[in-house]
Amino acid sequence: MRWRLNGWVLALCGMWVWLLLSGCGRETTSSEPASKSTEVIEYEPTPFRPVEVGDRLVGPAVYTVDARAQDLWMYFDFSKGSVVGVQDLKTDDWDLAFQRHVIRTNGGDTNPAGQAAMMAIAAQTLADVSQVPSDSDFVSDVRTKKRLHAYNPEIHKWYNYNYTNNVLLPKPIVYVVRTQDGKYAKMRMLSYYCKNDVAGCMTFEYVYQGDGSTNLETPATKVSRQFNPR
Q: pTM for the full model?
């Protein structure tokens, strides 16, 4: 009887060891969700090269803002096609401000003296939007009682959050931008990641109309300022 009991114990222990090893084998060999490197494109920050574009139609261009710092805002000016230095938010020329995943505009409660605002259009590519809509309803930055800082409701949630991989993935939206001096641009978000899976590189593609008209037809020739996407 004791031998039979010991035999059962040995059998159960053997089965437990087999299940444990099998489970470990499945964990290491099963198909896990894709890593960041297979879900998103990673970019390096675009060098600062502000140049006045005048009244030309510019783009489509791809630009990456280094917004990794949590205590520093980076300012982008469509009329110069670059990140620019800003000393005074109310008087210096800038259109969009970036900090981590947050995007603000030079208007509304962020800066009442600026005209910048946005509207979101469900679209897959920039080519899907060729004109500023006649019934355009632009939204400026607002500050609510529950928030310490102003934000723009149109682009506040530009991403979908992937809970499995912990990544931010851009929504299929084209944003029409009214710049701080009343001109127009269109843009779409491409990525939030720098090389080596580092978060904070805000990459977007855009077309800017420098003549003040509402024509945002995407030029056939792509002019890219982006360096070393991976």
A: 0.78
